[in-house]
Specification:
The protein is α+β, with helices and mostly antiparallel strands. It is 20% helix and 28% strand. The protein has ten helices and 19 strands. It has helices spanning 30-34, 37-42, 73-78, 139-142, 155-160, 164-167, 185-188, 218-225, 252-258, 263-274, and strands at residues 3-8, 11-16, 19-22, 48-49, 55-56, 65-68, 90-93, 98-99, 114-115, 118-124, 143-150, 153-154, 174-175, 180-182, 195-200, 203-209, 236-238, 286-292, 299-306. The strands form four sheets. Strands 1, 2, 3, 4, 5, 6, 7, 10, 11, 14 and 17 form an eleven-stranded mixed beta sheet that branches. It is globular, with a radius of gyration of 19 Å. Residues 251-258 have low confidence and may be disordered.
């Protein structure tokens, strides 16, 4: 049965309905907490209504934040790629970009094309050394559970400087939480049932059941990642985003024209077009993100952030 963990500035809590129970642990990091499962299971006593708590990210920094590029068929096609020919591609985000589920997203002054990407965060529960093979059968040996993530992106930095790391690593560009949901192997197998929904100011922008849209699932992704990158408890794998982000590939005819003009002129036209796109985030926009199964038995909670 799933176990919901939340965190405040002064400690860890186990959530049961709307009541939170203090976890008696000395753990200062997510990895250390996951190693103290006895304390998690023993959490009891007088409960506190969760609405009275100021939640922070259940994933602590420093840690590794690894993300998958174009890992949903709908998003890959929207970006002008063929999902049937894509190979698993990874990139890193700075863990200094991690923020809490209600913390504001801070828009840097040099960034105008601020985009959102709801993602399922897979939280590593045990060390994954180089050469490890992760399968659906042993997934729970290495994965503790899931968390809601928003892979916030500065698109003009990403595109003009070809700097994925920089464009996605500004402070507050990785809101995580509100819950870290610990799952059994059978529950991890229900990943295809999870529905991801992101709205801006109440308008739904992304709404997708993972199902067949996901290209490379966590077990395969972690195995490929372990060819060159070890992971440790408390690290996070962001598994990609579905269709619905602000950015979208221009029509094929426009792409062909773009190939015939100098790069500086091409980017000038592209950004002039993007500047008219109302879907990019602006100051005071409210972003809400949820991930859950239809029956609600696995519910990662609702993330609510405001752009400042």
């Amino acid at each position: 049965m799933s176990v919901n963990i939340i965190r405040t500035a002064d400690g860890w809590w186990r959530l049961d309905g709307d009541q939170a129970f203090v976890i008696d642990t000395d753990a200062q990091s997510t990895g250390a907490l996951l190693a103290d499962r006895a304390a998690i299971d023993a959490a009891s006593g007088a409960g506190t209504n969760v609405d009275e708590l100021q939640l922070v990210s259940p994933i602590t920094a420093p840690c590794r934040v690894v993300a998958q590029l174009l890992n949903y068929r709908s998003h890959a096609m929207d970006a002008g790629s063929d999902p049937n020919t894509l190979q698993p591609t990874f990139f890193r985000k700075s863990s200094a970009s991690i923020s809490g589920p209600t913390d504001p997203i801070r828009q840097p002054p040099e960034v105008t094309l601020l985009d959102y990407e709801i993602e399922l965060g897979v939280v590593v529960g045990a060390d994954i050394p180089i050469g490890t093979t992760v399968t659906d059968d042993n997934l729970s040996d290495y994965v503790a559970g899931f968390v809601v993530a928003n892979d916030v992106s500065a698109r003009e930095i990403q595109l003009t400087k070809v700097q994925v790391y920089e464009s996605k690593s500004y402070p507050t560009f990785t809101p995580l939480g509100p819950r870290l949901v610990l799952l059994t192997n059978d529950e991890l197998g229900r990943l295809p049932e999870l529905r991801m929904t992101l709205a801006v100011n109440g308008e739904t922008r992304q709404d997708q059941t993972i199902g067949d849209d996901l290209i490379t699932p966590p077990a395969e992704a972690l195995t490929r990642l372990a060819r060159f990158q070890n992971m440790t408890a408390g690290d996070v794998l962001l598994t990609g985003t579905p269709i619905g982000t602000a950015i979208s590939a221009p029509p094929r005819v426009i792409q062909k024209i773009g190939e015939l003009v100098p790069p500086a002129l091409k980017w000038k036209f592209f950004f002039a077009r993007q500047a008219k796109n109302p879907k990019y985030l602006s100051v005071d926009d409210v972003v809400t993100a949820t991930i859950r199964t239809p029956d609600g038995s696995i519910d990662l909670g609702t993330q609510r952030t405001i752009v400042r």
